[in-house]
Amino acid sequence: MDPQARLAAASWIEPDEPVIAPPGERPAYQLRREFSLSTAPAVATVWATAHGIYELFVNGTRVGDQELTPGFTAYRRRLQVHSYDVTAMLRPGTNSLEILLSDGWFRGRHGFLRKADGFGDRVAALLACDVDGLLVATGPEWRSRPSRITAADLMDGQQVDLRLPAPGTIPLDAPGWRPVHTPTNALYADRQRLVLPTAPPVRRIRELTPVAVTHPANGITVADFGQNLNGWVRLTGLGPAGTQLTLVHGEQLDAAGLVTTDHLRAFDFATKRPLPAGQVDVVISDGQAAFEPRHTTHGFRYVQVEGLVTQPEITAVVVHTELQATGSFQCSDHRLDALHEVAIQSLLGNACDIPTDCPQRERSGFTGDWQVYVATAALTHDVSEFSGKWLRDLAADQWPDGRVPTVTPNPAGAGPSGSPFLDAMEGSAGWGDAAVFVPWELWRAYGDPAVLERQYDSMVRWVDYAANCAAVRRHPDRVSRRPEPAPYERFVWDTGGHFGEWLEPGEIPNPDPAADHGIVATAYLARSAHLLSRVADLLGRREDADRYEVLAAAVRGAWQSEYLTADGVIAVATQANYVRALAFRLVPEDLRTAVADRLAGLVAEADHHVGTGFLSTGLLLPTLADNGHLDAAYRVLLSTGVPSWLEMLDRGATTVWERWDGSDGSLNHYSKGAVVSFLYTHVVGLRLPEEPGLDEGGYRRFTVKPQPGGGLTWASAQHETPQGPIQISWRLVDDEFRLTVEVPPGCLAEIHLPDGERLQAPPGSHTLSSKRKPGGSSGSYSSRHGDSRGLS
Ligand code: BGC
Fold first, then answer.
1. Which one, out of 164, 369, 563, 792, has a CA that is 20 to 30 A from the CA of 671?
2. Which uninterrupted H or E stretch holds 603?
3. How many angstroms does the Cα of residue 736 sit away from the middle of ligand 1?
């Protein structure tokens, strides 16, 4: 039965809260109902959701093992309802149902500005418990009280007085319970937005014990967990009753060995004053219980515990969406294995029900970040439903004019937030294009066209929005340079606020909504229009397919007219612009070599260091390699010094940093980790078709094209596809290249040997080898097939 029907008889209840405390100081509330059963039930199921985050207790015992329910969605349009089997928890006689409710994403702080009350200023719960047909639902007979969680905010932290009774243990005949409120408003009345969860849940995934514990000052202990992570800390042995401990969570230590969060402080746009970094928990001991918050999360590697009188046991609890690992990679250079692991840890640290930019400073579902990373994530983890859920929110948050907000779920919903800066940046190219790129990459990786069908309208609205911006507005600089517009200019998208390439090495983040980022935005419009045309084609929408291909061609032509010379020089000569031109196929075929050579030239000028920013870092190495500069790609990958991935590792990164030198900014920002897709697609050579046909998505067709280089002597990867596992390993033995490939059932692989020979490989195990030709260069092989049944 659908969740709306399950909860039809339940009323929204709000705790009694005569005064709403300032954000970060609001308690979690207990909401309770007791009821009587004559016998133990045969089947009892609870359906629950909330504005805020809740834990559920039946007869004092916590229900289930999911965290931060009901999760983060575009609450005004989609609110998840979870169900729980509580049969074994009920008994004859009096039973209690209790909800522990805190601000969460709904009314707690969120985002760069740490704004509270994003979705409303009241927390509330909605629950129905079906006990063999008898319904116990939220309504006026419920009672509420503030809990021993005296303050709880997802960003600021949680404060608990353990001397007060635990949730679920105070009977209704005890003093202090107050009637709940059952107000109605349009949001409460809207039951259409109640939906079942489709993504894997957030859980406590693993625990870490400290790798080092130091005592940099009197009464202060700093635990280092050796890994930057998302989650919280469990403390046992808090000291005598009344001991107050403060836990500061951070990613960095200062010179004195104390935790510092200074690099995580955002600032108020208006006053430019820095905002507090938060991530501080406070616990008052009752002399025995352990502390483990569940109404906040932190991004941290270190915790600093202040106020200790005894030494507690300190454990980090890693919390994130339970994504199944689907990829592994190893090679002869352990630094690349380490880079692969660091990228994975960054992904996991940012998969807390939504893909976030970072788990500490903002925790926002930045559309651009997932746009650049989703294909890489799909190589290492099953992110199909995780992304699918987020895409539904993206569509729900899309403005009436089709623009996609920079962050989704977005507290402002499908319209302006009131912050002039944020509103001016909504619809940024490369960010909003997540509407097209993300479903497209999910289709390629998982082969289920349903995501394309579901998101089709959202894709169309985004591309139409961008095309319309291009058609009706011109950037003032262009107007003054060329008062009479060139005819192609109605396909140049140069207005609206854009982040541009964003954070190229050394760039100080200072987005200017008035800047002309036409060279980036027009490129994205061409790419999205083309992908949309491909999607339309797959879905049998021929007219749309033609229309958007015509648009893509016109925008590509406009980009060329405005930004590319006849001999392949791009107007703004950055690595990023050259990479994008090639990767998005903006360059006429006969100029590709010239453009690629210029890119290689820019890379060489940078002493083979990465010069791209957010949007094209993941595309840099594949683009070099696919356009005749494999050696340059490996040199960039293996370069050291700032900016480089290996330098980050040398400086101790355990997750990917926002800035190449780790100065300022978050230390857990996965976007640059997109480079690890090169390990799969080029080092071992596992490639999806660029534009899979209807029976080719999800690795039903794939290419194996290993491109050895960088001094590697062997490499191996496994990837779990919807069809089964693909295994690829190669090894260089003297002058021989030996390759083994495992093709899952129902798939067909095309194997490209380094000498250029191609073979069709059906399901099964294939072993091939090719010999380096006498006197040949490192890329020259002649092939010999070993045990390879069925190859043709
Ligand atoms: C975030 C990024 C995001 C960007 C938008 C930053 O503050 O952390 O990851 O994409 O803003 O430009």
1. 563
2. helix 592-605
3. 46
3 state DSSP class of 252: strand
Atom 6 of ligand 1, nearest CA residue: 357
The torsion angle over the Cα atoms of residues 144, 148, 151 and 153, rounded to 10 degrees, is -80
Distance separating alpha carbons of residues 459 and 435, to the nearest angstrom? 5
Q: Is 635 helix (H, G, I), strand (E, B) or coil?
A: helix
User: What are the two backbone dihedrals, phi and then psi, of residue 717, each rounded to the nearest 5 degrees?
Assistant: -145, 150
Q: Which residues are catalytic?
A: 362, 658
Taking the centre of ligand 1 as the mean of its atom positions, its distance from the CA of residue 366, in whole angstroms, is 7
- Among 275, 357, 669, say which to mutate for ligand 1: greatest number of ligand atoms within 8 Å of CB: 357
Mutation choice for ligand 1 from 114, 361, 366, CB with most ligand atoms inside 8 A: 366
Q: How far is the CA of 407 from the centre of ligand 1 (A)?
A: 9
Residue nearest ligand 1's atom 4 by CA: 366
Q: How confident is the model at residue 780 (pLDDT cuts 50, 70, 90)?
A: very low
* Atom of ligand 1 at shortest range from CA of 666: 8
Cα of 401 from ligand 1 centre, angstroms? 23
380 backbone dihedrals φ, ψ, rounded to 5°:
-105, -25
User: Half-sphere exposure (CA, 13 Å, Cβ side) for 766?
Assistant: 29
**Longest Cα–Cα distance in the chain:** 91
0.70 surpassed by pTM: yes
Cα 387 to Cα 452: distance, rounded to the nearest angstrom: 13
DSSP 8-class letter at 773: P
The Å distance, Cα 650 to ligand 1 centre, comes to 25
Helices (H) and strands (E) in the chain, counts: 18, 35
Q: What is the dihedral of CA 686, 690, 696, 698, to 10 degrees?
A: 60
- Residue 434's pLDDT band, with cuts at 50, 70 and 90, is very high
Mean pLDDT check: name the lowest of 261-275, 450-464, 550-564, 749-763: 261-275
Q: Which atom of ligand 1 is nearest to the CA of 368?
A: 10
Run of H or E including 547: helix 542-563
CA dist 268 → 112, 273, 421, 514, 722 (Å)? 9, 5, 11, 20, 46
Q: Is the dihedral of CA 430, 432, 436, 438 positive or negative?
A: positive
Are 455 and 531 contacting, i.e. CB atoms less than 8 angstroms apart? Answer: no
- Residue listed under structure tokens 């199944």: 324
As given in the structure block, the two tokens for residue 228 are 């930057």
The residue whose C-alpha atom lies closest to atom 9 belonging to ligand 1 is 357
Atom 2 of ligand 1 has which residue's CA nearest to it?
357
Q: What residue owns the CA closest to ligand 1's atom 12? A: 499
